[in-house]
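Notebook B, p. 112. Complex prediction, attempt 2.
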Amino acid sequence: MSAVAAAAPAAVVPERAALPTLNAHRTFAGVMRGEWIKLLSLRSTWWVLGATVAIMTLVSFAAAMSLDVMAEDPLTAPALAQMHGAEIVSGGSQIGVVTIAVLGALLVTGEYSTGMIRSTLAAVPTRLPVLAAKAIVLAVVTTVVTLLSMALSYLVTTPQLTTYDLVPALDDSQTWQILGGTVYFLVAAAFFALGVGTVLRSTAGTVTVALTVLLLLPGTLGFITLDWVETIVSYLPLPAASAFLSTGDMSELGGSPLTATAGLLVVAAYAVVPLVAAAVLMRRRDA
Amino acid sequence: MIEAHELTKRYGDKTAVDHVSFTIAPGTVTGFLGPNGAGKSTTMRMIVGLDRPTAGTVTVNGKPYAKHRNPLSEVGALLDAKAVHTGRSARSHLRTMAATHNISTKRVDEVIEMTGLTGVAHKRVGGFSLGMGQRLGIASAMLGDPRTLILDEPVNGLDPEGVQWVRQLVRLLAGEGRTVFLSSHLMSEMSQTADQLLVIGRGRIIAAGPVQEVIDSVIGATVRVRSPRLPELARLLERDGVTLTPADDGAIDLHGLTPAQVGDTAAAHGIPIHELSPQKASLEDAYMNLTQDAVEYHSHATAAAPVATDTSAGTATQKGQNR
């Protein structure tokens, strides 16, 4: 009994070539548009983005206000002279990096925790375009939000910066290095979280890793003065980023032993390595 | 058309799907039947490339699923009603899927209407009942207007009206020449919707073919006979391969004989017949019979005999089906 095949009585209906009348064609642009809709149709996205803008602006404003205290204290007053105004404007990035990392994590872990990933990968079974589209969408959103935060910060800190003659000049290359570097750093942090999130598939786990690497480790290890620990710390994302985010050696983190270029490369590694691991695992694992 | 060849999936030392081969012909509704944990969902996930087979291959319309340019218009799959982000509205969910294939928003609204979700299209999926989740799953399966539909337990969680709707939809889709492959652990559901059956137990195909053929092959045709000279007739009919079971009201049920054979024998000996009726074995009976081995094998995993029996039976049906 060639059971299934032969007994198909309805084989009267041949494979009608005309059947799919719907015009459907998968493209990478389509996959990206899908990711856009995904990102913008979640309330959590708007919460995280709103929080990022608010926190970054507030921290920057607070930094500007603390200039008064700095100026009065004879210990810190000399530092004021070496400070660049753009550092104040981008001052919220150390906190913004955390909310942006949460966004990067949620973009993929939200899919794994709800089961959405199975719908996603059924639509795009080659899988890697999904990761690429997520990374691009994330980079765009992060850039826009960071620029918006810094524009707002610029507005609210200008009166205070004027007092100390620190308003960042738009024709100063250092201004653009710091502002551009901030965008670069936050995009890298978002990629880091996206990569780790794809590997771990868990929101809690990813956020914990991101918080630890981005904030906790530089903070806690910073108190240890052993040489080799200090070397490790300088290669953590935040200290490495300070190599291109601060101008003088007056950074609160105590400056970076890395050159600006080395800092850029180290930060890039934090973005690229998890993403490569994510790509390999995403292709290989069962959804 | 779905073709699986020696499809196998192992998780560690547990074999979920064990050298499964089958063909799902176009234009048919094929029921994939088996107890929970028999390997139905794993098989279906391998068809759409979500799980990677440990060994063997499976193709859809001649190609592995992932090799299709527009997979959503080849195969629509409802694998898990919960494969949706709970924070998104039903419509947004469908739009994200549609966008990947540049499917119009008009089509999104079409499938929303088709599945009766219009009223809740803008509500977040997190608040959906299981039945509404199933409808959304079916809506996303229909999105690309696919030639093949794979539905894993589509009536699970639906109210009677919803069950009726799924049955009609499935028949309608098959009538349009589409291939429908749907799973269930309920035999009765299959009798309502499927024309072909693929029965799986403990990762192996244990039977395949048209619904009635599968049932007959397991239970064998039963003929009920009533006669004033029944003991005499029974003696005449008794031979190897024939079993006689007394029915409750003085009739007997014969297994292994056709009504014609019984009638001819009776006529040859001048025995009057008061009733001679073929009995349809119930689906549930057939199902229990089919899966019994698999269940027994499960509880006496160390006993050698049932293992051997089970294996040979499984292989035989598989080979028969491949021919």
